[in-house]
């Protein structure tokens, strides 16, 4: 159970980092 919670938190952190990187890319390179 502990490992499952750890994996869930790790997956959530990784997901948020990916979203942040995507948003940063759109803000940086999405401007004409």
From TrEMBL:
| InterPro entries in alphabetical order | Ste12, STE12_transcription_factor
What is one Pfam family matched by this protein? Answer: STE
What parts of the sequence cross the membrane?
Answer: none
Keywords of this entry:
Nucleus, Transcription, Transcription regulation
Keyword Transcription regulation set for record: yes
Q: Which GO terms describe its molecular function?
A: DNA-binding transcription factor activity
Top-level taxon of origin: Eukaryota
Indicate where this protein resides in the cell.
Nucleus
Give the primary localization class: nucleus
**GO annotations of cellular component type:** nucleus; Ste12p-Dig1p-Dig2p complex; Tec1p-Ste12p-Dig1p complex
Q: Does the keyword Transcription apply?
A: yes
Which family, according to the similarity comment?
Answer: Belongs to the STE12 transcription factor family.
Instruction: Write the protein's name.
Output: Ste12-like transcription factor
Q: Which organism is it from?
A: Funneliformis caledonium
């Amino acid at each position: 159970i502990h490992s499952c919670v750890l994996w869930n938190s790790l997956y959530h952190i990784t997901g948020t980092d990916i979203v942040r990187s995507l948003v940063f890319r759109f803000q940086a390179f999405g401007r004409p």
